């Protein structure tokens, strides 16, 4: 669909899966869900909505990472 978040979710997933090959060389050693700009532990993730873009969450556990472009430090 033209206005879905599928493309960004795919880019974020590939970025996380290949993070061990480029600085800062982060190795993810567990199953995870990359969705809606956050990286969540797979065994703590559940579907929270069928109608909004950020449809998955981990209510009892914080995200492993928040994804996106980081601006320069000030």
Structure description:
The protein has one helix and five strands. By secondary structure, it is α+β, with helices and mostly antiparallel strands. The chain has one domain. A three-stranded antiparallel beta sheet has the order 1-2-5.
Mean pLDDT: 82
Computed over alpha carbons, the radius of gyration is 13 Å
Helix share of residues?
Answer: 10-25%
Largest sheet: 3 strands, antiparallel
Number of structural domains: 1
Strand order within the widest beta sheet: 1-2-5
Oligomeric description of these chains: single chain
Total DSSP helices: 1
The class by helix and strand makeup works out as alpha+beta
Content of β-strand: 15-25%
Q: Care to count the β-strands?
A: 5
User: What form results from the Cα inertia axes?
Assistant: globular
Unreliable spans: none
**H/E element sequence:** HEEEEE
Distance between the termini: 38 Å
